[in-house]
Amino acid sequence: MRSFRPILLLLLVLLGAVPGRQALATPVRIKDVTDVQGIRSNQLVGYGLVVGLNGTGDRLNNSLFTRESLISMLERLGVNIRDQQQKLQTKDIAAVMVTAELPAFAHGGSRIDITVSATGDATDLSGGTLLVTPLMAADGEVYAVAQGQLVTSAFSAKGAAASVTRNIPTSAHIANGATVEKEVASQLSTRRSIDLSLRNPDLTTASRIARAINRSMGDIARVDDPRTVHIDLSRGDAVSTLEGIEDLLVEPETPATVVVDEASGTIVMGDNVRISTVAIAQGNLTVQVTETPEVSQPAPFSGGQTALVPRTGIKVDSGAGKRLGILREGPSLRDLVGGLNALGVGPRDMISILQTIKAAGALQANLVVR
């Protein structure tokens, strides 16, 4: 089993907890840890057709929605093939879902990126062209129109007995592939107050943000809750106030949290994690069964027969050689990691130890298991 020491040492470097020096919080800008409430992007979605595929599109006999979409599109263009629809056998067209994100303050005529994903049994969208596709928001209104040449950054090739696929050929991207047709009204300049929303809610961090704003801009900020800092704009406008506070530095408070991902065996600890003194004994029962059959060969002219004689070896390791160890209370993450690392266990066993320490009430942190 590989040692967990390299992972923990890397964690120490990332968190700044190197031997001989206490980790210090790094100041960050207010704009990097908060959002302005009411200023957000909106998700758009649309259904369209991709044409120009090299025989890698939907099979019309299987994808009925692609067939009906193609017939409806041709009818809108003045081509009536309702009576001949059974003869449609093209494989150069595919039905797709188009998604995009409409950013805040996007004005009519602005360009936004779009993502195109196959909905039928198309195998590759490379080289296709998306036809005009309206993009709607949750209110059913059309806010953008998409069209353009698809880029998949994928490769797919196959033969009779083998195939090679790189990336996802049924998902494509078009940079600046949609034009904004309708704006989302947002009058920032007419607001009399704004609320800053913390991305990681914490009362201490919110208080530090309010104090930093009040020192720089006057007494205009107050903390409403661990997520919200209210700013009064009675003595100024929103644009100049936000410009003045965006680059103010604060030290965010990080909660004591241990995050465990059992699927990958990953453990991440925050700098404020503390542990009370506990005694730990960790061991596993291992039973190893080895089969080494031998061939029994009789002497010449003895009249005997060659036979396969089984030979089974069984080894049991109950972990009797491992002793009870004491993990003492550490004042820093470095000492905590050093104590856990001294046990000489791997990531999987470390997860079990942390869960057991938490159950014993000795882990002074929130344990999150994913």
UniProtKB/TrEMBL annotation:
Coiled coil, from the record: none
Main localization, broad class: other
InterPro entries (alphabetical): Flag_FlgI (IPR001782)
Domain of life, per lineage: Bacteria
Signal peptide interval: 1-25
Subcellular location: Bacterial flagellum basal body
Keywords on record: Bacterial flagellum, Cell projection, Cilium, Flagellum, Periplasm, Signal
Keyword Signal belongs to the record: yes
Family label: Belongs to the FlgI family.
NCBIfam families: PRK05303.1
Described function: Assembles around the rod to form the L-ring and probably protects the motor/basal body from shearing forces during rotation.
Subunit structure: The basal body constitutes a major portion of the flagellar organelle and consists of four rings (L,P,S, and M) mounted on a central rod.
Protein name: Flagellar P-ring protein
Organism of provenance: Rhizosaccharibacter radicis
